[in-house]
Amino acid sequence: MSMRANRVAEQMKKELGSIIGQKLKDPRVGFVTVTDVEVTGDLQQSTIYISVLGTDAEKEATLAGLSKAKGFIRSEIGQRIRLRKTPEIEFAFDDSVAYGNRIETLLRQVKTEEE
């Protein structure tokens, strides 16, 4: 990713936190944390990685709610960040938190087995 794409991604990450937390009124969208934003080098597309607390059904409902609100979120980003063209938005789950928890659990098991 280029330096400009990194700056745009960081600015989008900041703005998305406030947009999702304050402006979005969809009841399906629960507690969402924007963990990362990746923007292509030409600034045309972006992937927003989110982590959601709750069951699998709640996570899927949150993703559906965010996907439904893509247009609204994109227009809000366009108003807040001055770009010629606002990147297309795609949401994806960030599994790194769950992966980290799994590794921590395995390490604890190994430690207890050694003792």
Automatic annotation (TrEMBL):
Subcellular localization(s) per the UniProt record? Cytoplasm
SUPFAM superfamilies in the cross-refs: Ribosome-binding factor A, RbfA (SSF89919)
- Lineage, top-rank taxon, reads Bacteria
Which keywords does this Swiss-Prot/TrEMBL entry list?
A: Cytoplasm, Ribosome biogenesis
Quaternary state and interactors:
Monomer. Binds 30S ribosomal subunits, but not 50S ribosomal subunits or 70S ribosomes.
Task: Cite the HAMAP family for this sequence.
Answer: RbfA
Member of which family?
Belongs to the RbfA family.
* Its biological purpose: One of several proteins that assist in the late maturation steps of the functional core of the 30S ribosomal subunit. Associates with free 30S ribosomal subunits (but not with 30S subunits that are part of 70S ribosomes or polysomes). Required for efficient processing of 16S rRNA. May interact with the 5'-terminal helix region of 16S rRNA.
Q: What is this protein called?
A: Ribosome-binding factor A
